[in-house]
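User: Let's play a game. I give you a shape written as tokens, and you guess the letters that built it. Ready? Here's round one.
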């Protein structure tokens, strides 16, 4: 692995290189909104975020705050060494359909029981907001991290980070 040039956080910022491994879950008490095709599909006054070294946070929204009528379960699954097996949703609003664009853990490992059935969204597929800030998508479209102005990297998923 080559030397990683970490960005020094400024006032009010945090570095993904200070996040732990294995990941930590924390509550974020900020408004969270997710839109698809101009329609609000998720909204919450607070959410859970998972923090893992080198990754922007992934936000998980309680299913009671997600308009699940816009979502259909798919056969896709993936495995996280920490959280266990994830299942996926395809979302559709009007004629806009985004396949395998949100995920959840129906039976997470014991250390991550808090996120059971909470829904995470790929910000490259939806408009995602923390407060009034529209988040940027983590590159690579694999991890689903939400990049906001208060988070600095570099981030896993960018070119040249495959072996981090």
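Assistant: Ready! My guess for every position:
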């Amino acid at each position: 692995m080559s030397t990683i040039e970490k960005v020094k956080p400024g006032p009010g910022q945090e570095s993904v290189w200070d996040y732990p491994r294995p990941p930590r879950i924390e509550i974020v008490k900020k408004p969270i909104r997710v839109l698809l095709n101009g329609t609000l599909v998720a909204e919450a006054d607070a959410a859970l975020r998972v923090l893992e070294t080198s990754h922007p946070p992934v936000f998980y929204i309680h299913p009671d705050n997600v308009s699940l009528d816009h979502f259909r379960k798919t056969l896709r699954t993936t495995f996280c060494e920490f959280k266990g097996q994830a299942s996926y949703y395809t979302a559709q609003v009007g004629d806009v359909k985004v396949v395998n664009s949100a995920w959840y853990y129906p039976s997470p490992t014991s250390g991550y029981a808090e996120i059971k059935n909470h829904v995470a969204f790929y910000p490259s597929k939806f408009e995602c907001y923390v407060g009034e800030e529209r988040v940027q998508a983590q590159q690579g479209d694999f991890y689903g991290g939400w990049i906001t102005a208060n988070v600095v990297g570099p981030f896993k998923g960018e070119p040249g980070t495959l072996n981090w």
